[in-house]
Amino acid sequence: MAKRYAKIKTIILEITTGKARRSGTDDQIVLQIGGHRWILDKPKYDDFERGRTDIYELDVPLGMDASWFRFLCFQKKTQTGKDDDWQIEKIVLKINGKVVYEKADLDIWLKADRPRWCAHEFTYGKAGE
Q1: 108-to-30, 46, 59, 85, 113 alpha-carbon distances in Å
Q2: Distance from the Cα of residue 87 to its chain's centroid
Q3: Which of 73, 88, 91, 92 is nearest to 30 (CA)?
Q4: Angle ∠(119,91,10) on CA atoms, nearest 5
Q5: Residue 18: is its pLDDT beyond 80?
Q6: Any long-range contacts for 61-65 (C-beta under 8 Å, 24+ apart)?
Q7: What tens digit of pLDDT does each residue of 66-101 get?
């Protein structure tokens, strides 16, 4: 019998930038879940400032279900032409109102030479949720 995957209706990402000196960024941040990408950007808002939690309600592609969630990654795209590191302190991902991933005290730095990070322990969608 084939696995039945939950249909995705809502995706909410809460991401907290660290409090260390120069932990915020003006660079573009991309969230990748499986084969889908979202550019995390609120118009007329300064995203990813030091010590602040930003909340994104993401557009859900038509037909998306839990099988799309093979991995969870963030990538920093350098736009400013300068070294603009970003520190991730906390990530909370909610699918259909349920927390499916939450990690705090991460101290992850995305830098020009290491612009991508993936949550290796992310399992949502792999077991037919």
Answers
A1: 15, 20, 26, 10, 13
A2: 13
A3: 73
A4: 95
A5: yes
A6: 61/36, 64/7, 64/8, 64/36, 65/5, 65/6, 65/7, 65/8
A7: 888 888 999 998 766 667 899 999 999 999 999 999
